[in-house]
Input
Amino acid sequence: MAEPVRVLVTGAAGQIAYSLLYSIAKGDVFGKDQPIVLVLLDIAPMMPVLEGVVMELQDCALPLLREVIPTDKGEVAFKDLDAAILVGSMPRRDGMERKDLLKANVAIFKSQGEALEKYAKKTVKVLVVGNPANTNCLIAAKSAPSIPKENFSCLTRLDHNRACSQVAMRCGISAEFVKNVIIWGNHSSTQYPDVHHCKVNVQGKDVVCFDAVKDEAWLKGDFISTVQQRGAAVIKARKLSSAMSAAKAICDHMRDIWTGTQEGNFISMGVYSTGNSYGVPEDLIYSFPVTIKDKTWKIVDGLAINDFSRAKMDATAAELVEERDTAVSFLGV
Ligand code: NAI
Output
């Protein structure tokens, strides 16, 4: 059997982690034959809660789970990592501005980037989930200069999955028959869910999304705003941010990094923008359509972009530039 992979989950006493850890530990992400050492980081006051999570993981009696290491110390948490899933942060509460969240969180991601630099393997794959995810990811990457920026990505797969599901429900089919939706830009309400390259499989045949849905006004209106506002709608209903669906999206994202995307399919993730064909400003973590092979992502280049899409892609880029500049001025990185 293979050597265990060492996987860190931060915010491990929180609600996303509670939905996430079982799936990772039973092999949904890194493979059904891949043993795992799970390292669980949270802050000191949460250690008693984390102890309970550890007990539950032990009580699952999972064959792949070789060891569980709970800690509140960076030098333990980040040591020799193969994968880091950075969830821990201050979550957005009802009515909270993204700017407040940015201030509270970028400092965390700076110090975690520094810890990755110091302790993790240089091959570590880092997935940032804690919001504002794109900018937190950029700050972590900048704070770990000896780890390739390509090893960092942020979660927009939840938005991607939401978009697939909205189209699928509209067509009365299963979400597995919808492929190649794109989330462009920021994991925020300026994100642009784009279906111009999306295909819907109707009775065994791939059909252009606009032809399958047969409602252009909906696709260019309520569909977009529903996906953009979905996180806020869940918070309003649950009084807590998305957890079960976020955990599922984290698994989808990391599994695709580990095992690759299917031929002919692309997925969305926030990655470092440099030299792309879409005119997205450099030095941002921006969500693009990507394919993945051998644990390496590649932006799907050359897709036709109409004026409708262009304006929305630019608006979300402008928000990210502003967010980055605020974060950088705040931290001096
Ligand atoms: P939660 O509040 O239930 O858990 C967060 C955990 O992080 C807490 O246990 C807290 O003690 C811990 N934490 C805080 N600072 C930490 C630090 N410096 N190091 C390690 N742990 C730390 O929050 P929840 O619901 O699990 O959400 C976590 C984050 O994920 C939030 O920022 C939320 O906005 C974000 N999120 C992102 C999504 C995405 O699609 N990118 C989707 C859903 C949530």
Notes: Residues 10-11, 13-16, 41-43, 46, 87-89, 91-92, 108, 129-131, 133, 155, 158, 187, 241-243, 246 surround NAI (CB under 6 Å). The radius of gyration is 19 Å.
